[in-house]
């Protein structure tokens, strides 16, 4: 036990801090993307691969879920999309010799960066119980081992089936089918740690767990809020859409504790002005909010809109929309009228004038869109905050008409599609009925476990087998020590993966690695489909030669595992599904609403849009049949003296737990990741200085949690707040610190203290 990852990567001793950038993308971004790609895949493969990204006959970029749009440029990718592709298309390989040289124990002591840099997995590997080494295993034997362990369980609920968000619609649909046929709804997914709060809030208020805008809407909006999101790094192609909206006259308000480069200014490499010159100024207004202040901000803006309506009736509120399409307005209005400005100022750290000025923008805008990502979803009150954004939009009828609506910006490239395909621990009765109708078996009705509950189930011995369709569960989840111990207590852990990661090193007694094809790779003559952040479904076809002849597609892995578990008598034609993915899509067409005529429609270049009742018809399929106003209490998160509120973010050189490199160029950090960004005034107050080394300590009723050795960077973040990278800081977040309703770990508000380390 107490196996700890080292804290440093070779090469990060030379940590260098420069000044943060004020603009994102542009030529350096293109140059960086080509350099990383050359290093991983050589010049020829780079050029062949990158011309196919996001083209109508190419593959969907595995980077993020931002949509592609109709008018594609020849280079429809971004620096970070190119890095995501290079990670997958790399020429480096992890072979059986590698596993003979490196024991599991040793791998557990490597950094995430080192593990990822080893390259693509090439053949199925088995770590027998009691052994420290993975050894090669045939696919047949691997499936047999899993089937045996599953059959040995006392109940199907003792098995957990995780999904990360890169899995195609076809593989996801079959995977949930296998899991439910086996008899459980234990289908935790990365969404539980990501946009679950958005789904919870939007389903209750608008009747759909997704956004209600299209790319066209974004181009047409008069005012766009970008809240709790760093698109310059995480959704770079969104910057082009924002630029286009600006060309059409939109104003942009950025709400963030950090002055993120991409929000301030954008140099579009695909425009002449992006190569030389200053590029486009994106945000017209930057509200540097305190962490967790957003509920207060949106409530305050709504309050000011009510007051504007009092002063000039018929000017600030869309009465007709409120009366015809919404429910709960009166209760909500009463609550908002009682809002206390002192609380608002304390929670947001913003002046009343700043909020009032922003409301003038709102009053001047016919149509408003609010975009958000992890800055809103990973707090205790996340669901309430997003509901409050819905209230704010409903007030002026900013849902279900062109240029207006909610826009949760999704992370993984098919995380939204996976949920549409039924990867959900709380499936609707209608979905289960449709499965029964189509496949003739009774799926279980009791809800399954989400990500956090799955860890609890392992910890408490209620679950014994853990299967992951992609991702890196051990590194992505909170409370690292608790989670690692939970995982180690499993009888069997199985990872279907493309690249080596921590979840292959922190395993159950017995472990399997099942290597699979990535998006970029040829899957015989088959293609798969994905759904983007705006509900567009389209085909994705890989063209590269697979990293190894021994890889199977995710679809093939599910089908062969199913045949091994159920024998040939399950009444489900797994073999035909594997042979021809059209056969899977025919079933999806009959089970999942909106997919009628799937095979024909997905062959139309560009794909098709899924129905979206709020957007298409101003229809709100909620419990009341109307869009619901909701009352959400403002509880100011008060941080005790001497403490700061920490958010855990992504650097520019990482994809979740995959570390591409050790720089965070836009924030001026080079060659290192163990840094903490703190406001200079807070540093002065705490008696600390830029360049000092500290431990980050979070305090909880069950004891302290500590992340060691971080270099302080004096940085213009909001007062009282600080930031550091995940996964290094996951250790600070207890398993039980979760958002209400959505159960998402509170990765964006962790109270910590900084403890100076004795000089070395
Ligand atoms: N290159 C790259 N692309 C990615 C990913 C990646 O790791 N690398 N990950 C993908 C995934 S799965 C996801 S979910 C998305 C994540 O995309 P983001 O949500 O942009 O990712 P984070 O780095 O978590 O950034 C959170 C942002 O919210 C701000 N923020 C934090 N707390 C608050 C708050 O309380 N209020 C407000 N207003 N702002 C706050 C932070 O300062 C930061 O700018 O990106 C996807 N795309
Ligand atoms: N503290 C903190 N923790 C967080 C977050 C945070 O902001 N702060 N963000 C959370 C969020 S938003 C998310 S989405 C989760 C991410 O959680 P995960 O999705 O579980 O993690 P990833 O790092 O994206 O997974 C990377 C691994 O996926 C595998 N992989 C890549 N492509 C494929 C493929 O095509 N098929 C298969 N089968 N495997 C593939 C590779 O082996 C790679 O090592 O992390 C969450 N954790
Ligand atoms: Mo995510």
Folded structure, characterized:
- The protein has 760 residues and is α/β, with parallel strands linked by helices.
- It has three domains: 10-18 and 641-756, Barwin-like endoglucanases (Beta Barrel), CATH 2.40.40.20; 86-193 and 414-611, Rossmann fold, CATH 3.40.50; 196-408, Dimethylsulfoxide Reductase, domain 2, CATH 3.40.228.
- It contains 31 helices and 31 strands.
- The strands form nine sheets. A six-stranded mixed β-sheet has the order 6-5-18-17-16-7. It has a six-stranded mixed barrel with strand order 23-30-27-29-28-31.
- Strand 5 and strand 6 form a beta hairpin.
- Helix 7 runs parallel beside helix 26 (554-566) and helix 8 (196-206) packs across helix 20.
- Bound molecules: ligand MGD (2 copies) and molybdenum atom.
- One ligand MGD binds next to helix 10, helix 19, strand 23 and strand 24.
Summary of the model, kept short:
This protein has 760 residues and is an alpha/beta fold. The chain contains 31 helices and 31 strands.
Features:
globular, binds molybdenum atom, Prok_molybdopt-oxidoreductase, Barwin-like endoglucanases, alpha/beta, iron-sulfur, Oxidoreductase alpha (Molybdopterin) subunit, binds ligand MGD, 760 residues, YdeP_MopB, single chain, 6-stranded mixed beta sheet, Rossmann fold, 31 strands
């Amino acid at each position: 036990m107490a196996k700890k990852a080292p804290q440093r990567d070779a090469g990060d001793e030379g940590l260098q801090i420069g000044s943060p950038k004020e603009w994102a993308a542009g030529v350096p971004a293109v140059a960086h993307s080509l350099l990383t790609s050359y290093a991983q895949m050589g010049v020829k493969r780079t050029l062949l691969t990158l011309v196919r990204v996001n083209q109508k006959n190419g593959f969907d970029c595995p980077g993020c879920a931002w949509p592609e749009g109709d008018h594609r440029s020849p280079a429809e990718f971004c620096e970070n999309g190119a890095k995501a592709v290079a990670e997958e298309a790399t020429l480096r390989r992890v072979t059986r010799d590698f596993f003979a040289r490196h024991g599991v124990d040793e791998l557990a002591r490597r950094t995430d960066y080192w593990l990822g840099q080893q390259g693509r997995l090439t053949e199925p590997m088995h770590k027998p119980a009691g052994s420290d080494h993975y050894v090669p295993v045939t696919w047949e034997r691997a499936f047999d081992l899993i089937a045996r362990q599953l059959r040995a369980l006392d109940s199907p609920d003792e098995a957990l089936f995780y999904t990360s968000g890169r899995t195609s619609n076809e593989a996801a649909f079959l995977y949930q089918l296998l899991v439910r046929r086996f008899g459980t709804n234990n289908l935790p997914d990365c969404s539980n740690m990501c946009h679950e709060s958005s789904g919870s809030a939007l389903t209750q208020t608008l009747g759909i767990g997704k956004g209600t805008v299209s790319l066209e809407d974004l181009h047409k909006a008069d005012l766009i809020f970008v809240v709790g999101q760093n698109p310059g790094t995480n959704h770079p192609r969104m910057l082009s859409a924002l630029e286009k909206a600006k060309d059409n006259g939109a104003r942009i308000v950025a709400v963030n504790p950090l002055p993120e480069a991409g929000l301030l200014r954008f140099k579009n490499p695909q425009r002449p002005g992006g190569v030389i010159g200053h590029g486009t100024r994106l945000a017209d207004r930057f509200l540097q909010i305190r962490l967790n202040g957003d509920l207060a901000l949106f409530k305050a803006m709504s309050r000011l809109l009510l007051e504007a309506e009092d002063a000039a009736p018929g000017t600030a509120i869309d009465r007709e929309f409120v009366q015809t399409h919404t429910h709960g307005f009166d209760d909500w209005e009463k609550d908002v009228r009682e809002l206390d400005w002192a609380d608002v100022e304390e929670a947001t750290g913003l002046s009343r004038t700043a909020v009032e000025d922003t409301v003038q923008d709102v009053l001047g805008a016919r149509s408003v869109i609010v975009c958000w990502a992890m800055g809103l979803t990973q707090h205790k009150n996340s669901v309430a905050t997003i509901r409050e954004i819905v209230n704010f939009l409903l007030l002026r009828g900013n849902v279900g008409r062109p240029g207006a609506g909610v826009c949760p910006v999704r992370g993984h490239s098919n995380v939204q599609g996976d949920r549409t395909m039924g990867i959900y621990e709380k499936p609707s009765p209608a979905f289960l009925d449709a499965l029964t109708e189509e496949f003739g078996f009774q799926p279980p009705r009791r809800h399954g476990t989400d990500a956090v509950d799955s860890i609890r189930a392992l910890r408490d011995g209620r679950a014994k087998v853990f299967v992951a369709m992609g991702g890196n569960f051990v590194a992505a989840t909170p409370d690292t020590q608790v989670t690692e111990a939970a995982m180690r207590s499993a009888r069997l852990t199985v990872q279907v993966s493309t690249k080596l990661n921590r979840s292959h090193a922190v395993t159950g007694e017995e472990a399997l690695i099942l290597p699979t094809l990535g998006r970029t790779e040829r899957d015989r003559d088959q293609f798969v489909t994905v759904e983007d952040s705006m509900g567009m479904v389209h085909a994705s076809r890989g063209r590269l030669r697979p990293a190894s002849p021994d890889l199977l597609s995710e679809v093939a892995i599910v089908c062969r595992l199913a045949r091994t578990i159920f024998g040939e008598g399950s009444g489900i034609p797994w073999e035909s599904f594997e042979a021809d993915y059209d056969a899977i899509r025919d079933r999806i067409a009959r089970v999942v609403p909106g997919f009628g005529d799937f095979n024909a429609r997905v062959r139309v270049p560009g794909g098709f849009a899924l129905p979206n009742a709020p957007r298409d018809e101003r229809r709100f399929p909620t419990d009341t049949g109307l869009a619901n106003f909701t009352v959400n209490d403002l509880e100011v998160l008060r941080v005790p003296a001497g403490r700061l509120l920490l958010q855990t973010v992504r650097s520019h050189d990482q994809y979740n737990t995959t570390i591409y490199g050790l720089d965070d160029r836009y924030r001026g950090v080079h060659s290192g990741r163990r840094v903490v960004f703190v406001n200079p005034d807070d540093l002065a107050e705490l008696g600390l200085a830029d360049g000092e080394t500290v431990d980050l300590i979070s305090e909880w009723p069950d004891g302290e949690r500590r992340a060691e050795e971080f270099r302080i960077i004096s940085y213009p973040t909001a007062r009282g707040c600080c930031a550091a990278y995940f996964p290094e800081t996951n250790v600070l977040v207890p398993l039980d610190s979760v958002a209400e309703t959505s159960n998402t770990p509170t990765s964006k508000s962790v109270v910590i203290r900084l403890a100076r380390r004795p000089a070395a």
